[in-house]
Specification:
The complex is a heterodimer of chains A (498) and B (482). Chain A is mainly α. Helix content of chain A is 73%, strand content 3%. Chain A has a domain of 221 residues. Chain A has a two-stranded antiparallel ribbon with strand order 1-2. The longest helix of chain A has 32 residues. Chain B is mostly helical and 482 residues long. Chain B has a domain of 216 residues. Chain B contains 21 helices and two strands. Chain B has a two-stranded antiparallel sheet with strand order 1-2. The longest helix of chain B is centred in the middle third of the chain and has 33 residues. Chain B starts with a helix and ends in a 12-residue tail after the last helix. The chains are: A mainly alpha (498), B mainly alpha (482). The interface between A and B is large, with 40 and 39 residues.
């Protein structure tokens, strides 16, 4: 075993082992639990950093363990994997700090942080998976490890949400399993390959491949919240705020979108997908989801529900970028994988702060909240403007490339979708900012907790500040080396090189 | 390995050791608990010894007392028998550990001799090389199992045991009739000799029919499953675990052996019929499990459903399908034993097993709920677990052979399983301010469940050893090619 064969395993293990250890800690051992949590998160970030450095210097990292006869469990570092793994490792650290602050004094923290770590383990596994079997394995593990987080509060409402989540995701997983096995019987391999491994198959198999593609997208679309498979996401809002942040920005929704990217680029190959006539339907599906999610978001008064429908809309940008078929749009879609994550996690952190500090859950209760919690709302504002796509924030970069890519690929109808969606984004975010900053605050908040001179606990305030600054930096320094945009460019050159 | 080690007759030890243990427990009831545990450990060690021997020397045939077939008793061991012995030893060790805390004085003196007697019969069954020996061991196993079911006492348990006894006797009687017919027609009871001499004749076909019916009845294949839920649900928890994990698998094992060696003459439509019944079992058992309001009955119906998966390999008949079915058998044995033990813990600490009233369970018995959930992962066939590997292989076999409808059954069965497992787990996670109420049960009882469930999970990650062992004297390539 050398460094290059163990590093992927270590990255997965750096959250798995602390997670398993946390399960066995008693509730009162706050210090040990915090140390385990943070050590795991830091260690993972350092390891990912080392891997990032290695990959950019042309090193090859691969862990291979035999699982089935002639099928291995493969963890491999490639540019696409690095994009997602860096996002999840970075945001995990921030979310861990936030969750420690958020859950202070509440029951069942050992259970919570145990599953929390398992959830990140699964996400990192999804990112590093080197073949479809490994992907499937971690994808299902993600379902199992998020369920206890969603029903964490144990109320009747959260159990209902958990049930809905399971019905959607287990059914989606079953479709994915069926499609994966079916594909395997045709090809004898499931290894992710740049530009796919199916184009050599006999043309008589093409109808079968189309069915398999539909099954795969349906299975992944559940987690990516493509319509009409998005129903679980708004319901899952009953989960604690750190879980929502994780669900929307890092783990579940992203795993679905990432899976679609993998299927299109590394299983079918983008050109082969296009030649099967599958990209236009996918683009239309993604575009409808973008518009539908935004429209629904307009009419939600519950802040977290509005953000949830915003996620439905925003995640489909990624799929849209893929389905437009063209190098520039691909860059836009891939970079949005990261940008949407950073922006949405900021918004959810802020929503959690409002709920924890002032008991605010609805937008109609947010009058003048900017004066009571200026820092939180400043971060929220940055996140919201990023979502709308205002320069020089991260979201602008994504939308710029998506729009440019659509024109480049001769699909100008996408421009209308993008413009419409941006208008809708503004229509559902700006009113929030308006009431928060310009209306007079009420005499008392629904349920206020005092934190001395500060507007809220530092562990709750620091994470959204960090991610808000990141939104700004990702926009301003978009072309710096190691930026997500540069990685997206690198991936795209590999996929589209002649 | 030295020559002396290699010549130790582990096969004989594996049969005699539990038998001797049973007698010792009977004679010294005061010591039965520690005797039982020592024997369990010794059996575990012997299976490991046999494993080493097998890897070194390949599949082996032993003639007991130097008398060869057709006069004497032959024992035969290959990779398949070894895996059956190993799963018995693992489940046996877990259940023995559990039972040493579960049973107190009056029940313990009955439990240990009966259980070790049952263990001896199981080991002998997996090592038998002729259909008459298989009958004898099957009958002994059935008697031991019935006595264990009756151990719970009370009208319910006795009624369940009585029904079980009648079914068991009926099943083995049908099997014995088939044996007699075969012996009369072909002059041998040795499986290998029979497979060489057997030819389609009315008597042979009747024998196949009788033997299969008897074995299907004992394996509780739908629609012959009616006796299983009451018997398995009314028995004490360790006994339920043994019955669901091992006893029903033993008759399946015989059926599998006969199918591969003797039954090819029955024709492909017979395999289709078995597959159809298996599909019926998967769906019917799953729906019934979903409808139960009692935890132990739910688990028992889950067994009915999971047994159906094993029969999906018959219409497929390819090597990968058989391996998938064997893997299903192994992981189900582990998972189901863990589940019944977990249910026993819940019953012991709450005094009831009404699913709707299982609130706050995750807080009171965290290890038990974890064991139940991990076992559930394998039962649902989600990764990483042995159940997933098995389901993948069966699914692959069904698509490869063009009989995709068996794959649909697999998928739907998995969804049903998820529904009934999460029905239980959902109730366990209810609101409570009290994080822990520890000290309700001896830790040993909780850890036994967790250890067994972990094996089911690990079977999904470390597959190389079981598959390599299965290759030793692999019987599947001789069977009908798919």
């Amino acid at each position: 075993m050398s460094w290059s064969t163990t590093l992927p395993l270590l990255i997965v293990g750096s959250s798995l082992l602390p997670g398993l250890a946390i399960f066995f800690l008693s509730e009162e051992r706050v210090v040990s639990r915090t140390i385990l949590n943070l050590t795991g998160a830091f260690l993972k970030l350092v390891l990912v950093g080392a891997m990032l450095w290695g990959v950019s210097h042309g090193h090859h990292y691969e862990t291979r363990l035999p699982l089935l006869p002639e099928l291995d469990l493969v963890l491999r570092a490639g540019p696409l994997a690095m994009l997602f793994v860096t996002l999840s490792a970075g945001l995990w650290l921030v979310t861990t700090v936030y969750a420690i602050g958020y859950l202070e004094g509440s029951p069942h923290r050992s259970r919570f942080f145990g599953f929390f770590s398992l959830c990140v383990t699964a996400t990192v596994g999804v990112a590093l998976a080197g073949n479809l079997l490994t992907f499937l394995l971690f994808y299902e593990l993600l379902t199992l490890s998020t369920y206890p987080l969603i029903i964490h509060r144990g109320t009747e409402e959260s159990r209902r949400a958990g049930r809905v989540y399971l019905i959607y995701t287990i059914a989606g997983g079953a479709l994915l399993l069926l499609a994966t096995v079916w594909l395997y019987t045709l090809t004898g391999t499931l290894e992710f390959t740049v530009r796919g491994f199916l184009s050599e198959l006999d043309t008589s198999l093409h109808p079968t491949l189309i069915i398999i593609f539909v099954l795969l997208i349906a299975g992944l679309g559940v987690k990516a919240a493509l319509i009409p498979l998005h129903g679980w996401l708004p319901q899952a809002m009953v989960a604690p705020a750190p879980v929502s942040a994780l669900l929307h920005a890092v783990a579940v929704v992203k795993a679905g979108a990432f899976g679609i990217v993998r299927i299109v680029y590394d299983v079918f190959g983008i050109e082969f997908t296009a030649s099967l006539g599958l990209t236009l339907p996918l683009a239309i599906l993604a575009a409808s989801t973008v518009i539908y999610g935004s429209l629904r978001a307009l009419f939600q008064d519950d802040l977290k529900r509005r953000l949830a429908f915003s996620t439905v809309s925003q995640v489909s940008y990624i799929v849209l970028g893929v389905a437009i078929v063209g190098p520039i749009a691909t860059i836009g879609g891939l970079v949005h994988l990261v940008h949407q994550g950073v922006q949405k996690i900021t918004l959810f952190f802020c929503a959690g702060n409002l709920a924890e500090t002032l008991g605010i859950h609805k937008i109609s209760e947010m009058n003048g909240v900017g004066r009571r919690m200026p820092w939180t709302m400043a971060a929220f504002t940055v996140g919201a403007f990023g979502m709308i796509g205002a320069p020089p924030l991260a979201g602008f970069v994504s939308k710029w490339y998506l729009g440019l890519g659509a024109l480049d690929a001769g699909q100008s109808w996408v421009m209308i979708i993008l413009a419409g969606s941006s208008l809708l984004n503004a229509a559902y975010f700006l009113p929030i900012l308006h009431v928060a900053w310009f209306k007079a605050p009420p005499d008392s908040w629904p349920m206020e907790r005092s934190f001395g001179r500060h507007e809220t606990a530092w562990a709750l305030l620091a994470p959204p500040m960090v991610t808000a600054i990141l939104v700004l930096v990702l926009g301003l320094l978009a072309s710096a080396p190691f930026s997500p945009l540069e990685w997206a460019r690198l991936i795209t050159t590999r996929e589209f090189a002649p | 390995m030295t020559g002396a080690f290699m010549s130790i007759p582990w096969v004989v030890i594996l049969i005699m050791l539990p038998l001797a243990g049973a007698m010792a427990c009977f004679l010294y009831p005061a010591k039965s608990k520690s005797l039982g545990l020592v024997v369990a450990l010794a059996i575990f060690a012997s299976v490991s010894g046999l494993g080493f021997q097998l890897v070194e020397l390949g599949a082996q045939r032993y003639t007991v007392g130097g008398w060869g077939a057709p006069l004497g008793i032959d024992l035969y061991v290959d990779g398949l028998s070894l895996l059956m012995l190993a799963v018995t030893a693992l489940v046996g060790l877990g259940v023995s550990t559990y039972a040493s805390s579960y049973f107190d004085h009056p029940k313990a003196i009955h439990f240990w001799p009966l259980w070790l007697f049952l263990w001896s019969a199981l080991n002998a069954l997996f090592l038998s090389a002729d259909i008459f020996n298989l009958y004898v061991t099957l009958e002994l196993m059935g008697l031991g199992a019935v006595a264990l079911v009756a151990l719970a006492g009370g009208a319910n348990a006795l009624a369940g045991a009585m029904r079980y006894l009648l079914v068991s006797l009926l099943g083995s009687l049908a099997y014995l009739l088939g044996v007699a017919l075969l012996y009369h027609s072909f002059g041998s009871v040795d499986i290998v000799m029979l497979s060489q001499h057997i030819e389609p004749s009315p008597a042979a076909l009747a024998a196949v029919g009788l033997m299969s019916t008897g074995l299907l009845l004992k394996t509780a294949l739908f629609p012959l499953h009616f006796w299983l839920p009451p018997a398995h649900a009314s028995a004490p928890a360790p006994v339920s675990a043994l019955l669901s994990a091992l006893v029903v698998k033993a008759s399946f094992y015989i059926l599998l052996r006969l199918w591969l060696e003797i039954f090819p003459l029955a024709g492909a439509s017979f395999g289709q019929l078995l597959g159809l019944l298996g599909a019926g079992a998967v769906l019917w058992g799953g729906i019934q499990a979903l409808r139960q309001t009692r935890l132990k009955l739910l688990i028992a119906y889950s067994t009915v459903s999971q047994l159906g998966y094993l029969f999906l390999a018959f219409p497929l008949g390819t090597s990968i399908a058989w391996k998938g079915a064997i893997y299903m058998l192994l992981s189900h044995a582990m998972a189901k034993a863990a589940m019944f033990i977990a249910a026993g813990n819940i019953l012991r600490s709450d005094g009831h097993d009404r699913i709707a009233d299982l609130d706050r369970l995750a807080q009171r018995l965290p290890l038990t709920v974890t064991a139940f959930a991990l076992a559930g992962v394998s039962i649902m066939g989600l990764p990483p677990s042995g159940g997933f590997i098995a389901k993948w292989m069966l699914l692959e076999a069904s698509i490869r052979s063009g009989q995709w409808w068996w794959g649909v059954v697999l998928i739907v069965g998995g969804l049903l399983a998820a529904a009934y497992i999460f029905k239980v787990i959902g109730h366990a996670f209810t609101q409570s301010e009290q994080p822990h109420e520890a000290g309700l049960l001896p830790t040993r009882m909780e850890w036994a469940a967790l250890a067994l469930a972990l094996v089911a999970i690990l079977l999904g990650l470390f597959t190389t050893v079981p598959f390599a062992l299965l290759e030793i004297g692999l019987p599947f390539d001789k069977g009908r090619a798919g």
